[in-house]
Amino acid sequence: MIAILSSLSFGAPLVLLGLLVIPLIWILLRAIPPAPIRRIFPAVVLLLGLQDKKQTSDRTPWWLLLLRSLALAALIIGMAGPALNRQNAPSSASDILLVVDGSWATGQGWSGMRELVEQEVANAVRRGVKVALLDLSAPASISFRPASLFEGTAQGLVPKPFGPDWTAAQDAIASLGEEGFDTIWFSDGLAHGSDKQSLLLTLKSKGAVSVYETERNLITISSVSLLEQSFEVRLHRLGSEGEKRVMLQAEGVTPNGLPAQIAALEYIFKEGTSDGRLEVVLPPELRKRITHFTIQGQSHAGARYVLADQLNRPEAAIVTPRGEMELSELLKPSYYVERALFERAEILDGAISDILPANPDIIIMADVVQVEATEDVLNWVQKGGTLVRFAGPRLAGAERSSLADDPLMPVMIRQG
C-alpha cells in the first residue's frame, strides 16, 4: 500500500485544495433550518387525526452525508489527474523532446509505444510545456511547439525497415544550439554500438533523460545458407533468459504459382543462449519453392527473411559420348566435371531430348563429337542457354570436315 501511494502523482495537484471544502459542506447540510412561523388557520381542524404515510427526517442521515462527501472527494481527486509511476517523465518545466528510435526492432511492441507517446504528450499538455518529436530512423529539423499540436501525432508514426540514422540525429540536435530541454527516449532496446551512447551523452548535456524500452521478446533471422544435403537457418534473440520455443514458417508458391506454406519448423532456445542454428532437410522440389521465412508471433522486419537464390543450386546437365556408360567411373570424360560440380549444382544426365525440356542453367558436353538434336540445342543456345564443350581425345582426333559444319563448335580444334 505504501509503495502504491509513493508512486502516485497528480497532474494538477492544486485541484486537491477542493477537498478542504468538504467539511464546510458537511456542516451546512447538517445545519437545522430556522423554525417556521406559526399562523392559525381554522380549516386545519378538518385534518386532525390523519396519519402521514411518509415521514421526513428533520436532518440528513449521516450515511447519506458520508456517501455524498465521498462522491465529491472522488470527483475532486479525479480532476487532479492522478497517475501511477509517473516518475519516468521529467517533472521540471523544461521543454520536452520525444525521441523515437522508429527502427525495425520497434515493430514488435509498436502499439504500446504509440500509447506511451500519446501519454507523454498528454502529460506535457497538462503541464503547459512545449514538445518536439525526433524520429531517429528519419531525422528532421527539431522545432518545439505547444504540446496540444502533437495530440494524435503518434498514430501517424510507423516503424521503418532499417535502423536509426545517428549522424543525422546528432546534426538535428546540434542545430538547437545551447538551448536546454528534457528528453523522453522511446528505445528499441538494441545496443547499436557507440553511436547510441554518443547520442545519449549529447542529450544528457541538454537536460534530464528518461528512457522507455520495448519488450525483450525480439527474435530475428540472421541468415539462411545452403549445405551439402540440407540448409540451415540461423536465429538470434534479444537476451538469453529462460527457454524459448520459436515457430518458423517456410513460405513460397505452389507449382501453379499460388502462395503456400511449404514447411513449419520449430526451434527451442536453451537457457543462457541467444543464438540458434536450425538445420532443415527438404526435397529439392520443395526447397526450390521457398521464397521467404517468417517467425510466428514476431511483427517486425527482422522476423522476415526474403530469399534470392540461397537455397537453389543451379542445374547443370552433363552430356557424354554414346557408349561411354560402360567405362569405369575414372575413365569417363565427365568424371572431373561431375566432381567439380557435385556440391555446387544439381547434376542432370541423359539424352539431349530428355534434358532440353528441363531447361537447365547450363549444358556441359564432355568430349562429344556428334551432337544429337543439333537444331534443338542451337535454338536453346540462341534463346539464352549456356553450352560448354570440353575437348578430349575424341574431338582432337575427329575429322576437320565434320567439325567445320558443326554450328555448336565455337572454335576449330587443333589436330594432333
Task: Describe the model.
The protein is of the alpha/beta class. The protein has four domains: 1-25 and 63-84, no CATH class; 88-213, Rossmann fold (3-Layer(aba) Sandwich), CATH 3.40.50.410; 219-306, Immunoglobulin-like (Sandwich); 315-404, Rossmann fold (3-Layer(aba) Sandwich), CATH 3.40.50. The chain has twelve helices and 18 strands. The protein has helices at 2-6, 21-30, 62-79, 110-127, 166-174, 193-204, 284-287, 335-341, 352-355, 374-382, 393-397, 400-404, and strands at residues 8-10, 82-84, 96-100, 130-135, 145-146, 182-187, 209-213, 219-226, 231-237, 244-253, 259-269, 275-280, 290-295, 304-306, 315-319, 346-349, 362-366, 386-390. The strands form five sheets. It has a five-stranded mixed β-sheet with strand order 5-4-3-6-7, with helices on both faces. It has a four-stranded antiparallel β-sheet with strand order 11-10-13-14, with no helix packed on it. It has a four-stranded parallel β-sheet with strand order 16-15-17-18, with helices on one face. α2 packs antiparallel against α3 (62-79) and α5 packs parallel to α6 (193-204). The longest helix is centred in the N-terminal third of the chain and has 18 residues, at 62-79. It is elongated. The protein starts with a helix and ends in a 12-residue tail after the last helix. The mean pLDDT is 84.
Could you state the oligomeric state of the chains shown?
Answer: single chain
Could you say which structural class the secondary elements and strand pairing correspond to? alpha/beta
Mean pLDDT: 84
Cα-atom radius of gyration: 40 Å
Strand order of the largest sheet: 5-4-3-6-7
Q: What is the share of helical residues? A: 25-40%
Query: In CATH, what is the class of the largest domain?
Result: Alpha Beta
Q: Shape, please? A: elongated
